[in-house]
């Protein structure tokens, strides 16, 4: 029975996707005494990797468009750049849906909770600081692979 209900759950999340992923591991073969020779040393960038922040949602039969988020997502920007223009029209187009999100700060802020209450959006209960077992995490891995 729960499998049919689970098909109605709609998952959303945001993720930072690195556009130039490099884990820094390189196989190097060198002879004794060559360790510090310029030809055996590879300089690498150690600062933040270039990337983009995106928001998206998936359901059993559907997905939202990806929304690029410039900078840091806070509750005001979540409301004005994601929930009103993308999330609301999308979820209203579904016959039935139960919304599931993680409990990060922008999602639990009063302004965002009021938005959900005013639009009568049903939630799947999810405890704070729980392991994130959402299937959308697998989707982020697939999206990130396309960028690298």
Automatic annotation (TrEMBL):
Entries under Gene3D superfamilies matching the protein: Ribonuclease H-like superfamily/Ribonuclease H
InterPro entries documented for this protein: RNaseH_sf (IPR036397), Tc1-like_DDE_dom (IPR038717)
UniProt superkingdom: Eukaryota
Domain Tc1-like transposase DDE as annotated: residue spans: 9-145
Molecular function GO labels: nucleic acid binding
Pfam families in the record: DDE_3
Name under which the protein is recorded: Transposable element Tcb1 transposase
Lineage: Eukaryota, Metazoa, Ecdysozoa, Arthropoda, Chelicerata
Gene, per the UniProt record: X975_12333
